[in-house]
Write a structure and sequence with these properties.
5 helices; GMP Synthetase, Chain A, domain 3; disordered C terminus; alpha/beta; three-stranded mixed beta sheet
């Protein structure tokens, strides 16, 4: 793979990396970039300065703007075409990865027969049940036969949300669509008016 095929660093990211290398007394440093978790919910990347003895025979390497980048063979395909930037905001600063190979939840198409069946169960069976508690359930996406939902209203932050999911929602969806292998709640339960998970 060429440099353009693996990773592209913005000038801000490149400058930050060059600064980190200059501040480290070790010789022959390179930047190892790897993907630890390719989950569409919360992908996890790792960047670290490594010394020559930390390299592995299967690693791929290329020169970026003033530094060498090392990518392990497992991560290389998943990182192909990724743009790395350095972002500073009120929430803090850090490297930001824009990876075309890991699409965030909700970016996929919500149409087709399977989506229609799952949506019908949510609209006709699940939401009338949770409405009595002021709650709602929304379909986010179906990916690889896994249904991703969010829970709103009274369900968001409710201590019984996981019980509702495992004992009710999951079973109703699987009964209507046996090919579904799992149902996952991707709600931010720490948010909302009355968060249970603080």
């Amino acid at each position: 793979m060429s440099e353009q095929e693996i990773l592209v660093f913005t000038e801000a990211a490149s400058e930050r990396i060059r600064t980190f290398i200059a501040e480290d007394p070790a010789e022959g440093l390179a930047v190892r970039v790897s993907i630890q978790n390719a989950s569409p919910i919360a992908p996890e990347y790792e960047m670290a300065l490594i010394e020559p003895f930390e390299r592995e025979s299967e690693d791929e390497s290329f020169d970026a703007a003033g530094f060498e980048v090392i990518v392990d063979s497992r991560s290389a395909a998943l990182l192909a075409g990724t743009r790395v930037d350095w972002v500073e905001s009120l929430q803090g600063s850090g490297f930001h990865f824009r990876n075309p190979n890991i699409q965030p939840l909700g970016s996929g198409s919500l149409d087709g027969p399977l989506v229609d069946r799952v949506r019908r169960v949510i609209d006709e069976q699940i939401n009338p049940g949770v409405a009595s508690h002021g709650g709602t359930v929304h379909l986010v996406e179906i990916r690889d036969n896994v249904v991703y939902v969010t829970m709103g209203g009274g369900c968001q932050g409710c201590g019984m949300a996981s019980v509702t999911l495992t004992q009710g929602i999951k079973q109703m969806i699987k009964d209507a669509a046996p090919e579904i292998v799992d149902v996952q709640d991707v709600t931010d339960h720490a948010a909302g008016d009355n968060p249970y998970y603080a």
